[in-house]
Amino acid sequence: MCHAYLNNSSFYTFLSLIDRDIAAEVQAAGCPYCGGVLHSARYPRKPRGLRHLLDDSYDTRLSFCCAEDSCRRRTTPPSVRFLGRKVYLSAIIILITALEHGLSTKRRKQLIEALDIWPQTISRWRKWWRAVFPDSHCWQAMRGHFVPPVNAAQVPGALLGRLTGDDLMQRLCHLLRLLIPITTASWSGSLKVIIDPQKM
Ligand SMILES: [Zn+2]
């Protein structure tokens, strides 16, 4: 595979630990609706592609339920692993769509085969980046930080190219961190969690 870290289980363990830290921070702040105590209420996930590299933590998405009887609302923390309900991991969705412009046809084809992705799935992702993402609060909040501006039509590839990092893996981690507001509809706010790929 052309990106060694994609084939390295420590990369996925590293992302799981970040999700755990994010969830701990969200839980500590209490229910965003009433301030009540948040109890664990994970829901099952079955991410596709690379199953053999993923540990048990990938069988669930971390989520909480408010303990207050009058509230009981669900709070799902942002994630650097899961992009909303999409069945492939965020890292894969970013890379495969981004590499459309940067990778040779042959290498991209190899990667897609190794990850067992259908062409229809990739065109859905492309549509999502072009039609849904540019309208998101996440993009609206982040776009102003780039000077000169990043062309929304070339996201995520153009974003990856503009972020800092020694290599593609570091820039990918940076992007996963930037994208977290879009990974949940039931929580918003700012987080202290920092992704340090050196710790992988
Ligand atoms: Zn509540």
Helices and strands, with pairings:
Elements: H1 9-29, E1 38-40, E2 43-44, E3 60-61, E4 64-66, E5 74-75, H2 90-102, H3 105-115, H4 119-132, H5 137-143, H6 157-162, H7 168-178
Antiparallel strand pairs: 1-4, 2-3, 4-5
**Whole-Å distance between the termini?**
19 Å
The number of E-state strands comes to: 5
Q: Supply the helix-strand structural class.
A: mainly alpha
How big is the Rg?
17 Å
Regions with pLDDT < 50 over 5+ consecutive residues?
Answer: none
Describe this structure in words.
With 200 residues, the chain is mainly α. It is 42% helix and 6% strand. The strands form 2 sheets. Strands 1-4-5 form a 3-stranded antiparallel beta sheet, with no helix packed on it. A two-stranded antiparallel ribbon has the order 2-3. The longest helix is centred in the first third of the chain and has 21 residues, at 9-29. It starts with 8 loop residues before the first helix and ends in a 22-residue tail after the last helix.
